[in-house]
Design goal:
With 112 residues, the protein is α+β, with helices and mostly antiparallel strands. The chain folds into two domains: 42 residues; 70 residues, Nuclear Transport Factor 2, Chain: A (Roll). Helices cover 42% and strands 29% of the residues. The longest helix has 21 residues.
Length: 112
């Protein structure tokens, strides 16, 4: 009987340890999502406003827009493909909507 009680106790510990491990801290993906949500809530300029500003500055097709923290500043990083097939990266201040930086990206295509 005593051995059976120990087995039940040991099994209970294993189940508890597994439950704690399974419901432990948030995964990296969850932390990243939470961080992005916090940044989006802090941005005064919406993604639509940032894209509109970029479109007025650089002609082409917007292919990506992402909110990032650069130099302790919240910035919309928007990529545009021009008619000349150049990739331009434009940084928009997420607080003021001002264009901070425009640069051509020098990507070398890779063959997969």
């Amino acid at each position: 009987m005593r051995q059976q009680s120990f087995a039940v106790f040991a099994l209970g510990l294993l189940v508890a340890a597994g439950t704690l491990a399974f419901t432990g801290p948030a995964s990296a993906d969850e932390k990243e999502k939470n961080g992005k949500a916090e940044m989006a809530a802090a941005a005064k300029v919406t993604i639509d406003q940032a894209i509109k500003t970029v479109s007025a500055k650089v002609a082409g097709k917007v292919v990506e827009a992402e909110l990032e923290k650069k130099h302790n500043k919240l910035v919309w990083e928007v990529e545009v493909i021009t008619a000349e097939n150049k990739t331009m990266e434009v940084h928009i201040d997420a607080d003021t909507g001002a264009v901070i930086h425009v640069e051509e990206q020098n990507f070398k295509p890779t063959n997969y």
